[in-house]
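re: ur question from yesterday

yeah so i grabbed the chain u mentioned. its 120 aa long if i counted rite. heres the sequnce exactly as i have it in my notes:
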Amino acid sequence: MINKKNIGNYGEDYACEYIKNKGYTILNRNYFSKNGEIDIIALKEDVLIFIEVKTRCFSNYGLGEESINYFKKAKCIKTARYYIHKNNLYHLNARFDVITITLDIDRNKKSIQYYEDAFS
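ran it thru and got these structure tokens back, copy pasting raw so excuse formatting
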């Protein structure tokens, strides 16, 4: 049975494989703080990357990137600041990326879009 949690987990797994193939190191997945959650925290060279993943099965629900509003961004930023502070990672540059995945279950196809530095 397809449900929102399964689709989200599948999308995050696919996103992790995608960025690993691009040379990123995964540091954390589904990192929670009192401020919110970040789907993937990765490192590439000296850049700490906080990644929000949005997976959709049908485009009639809108594009994944459209669901990341001001409040979602603010929660991600607060959570990232907490992560940097807790892990004493002030020496690293940081950015926020977005990965959107669209699944076409009937045709067994998927597409991925990567938006680097999406919050600026």
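noticed a couple things. The chain is about 30% helix and 40% strand. also Residues 100 and 113 are 5 Å apart (CA to CA).
anyway ttyl
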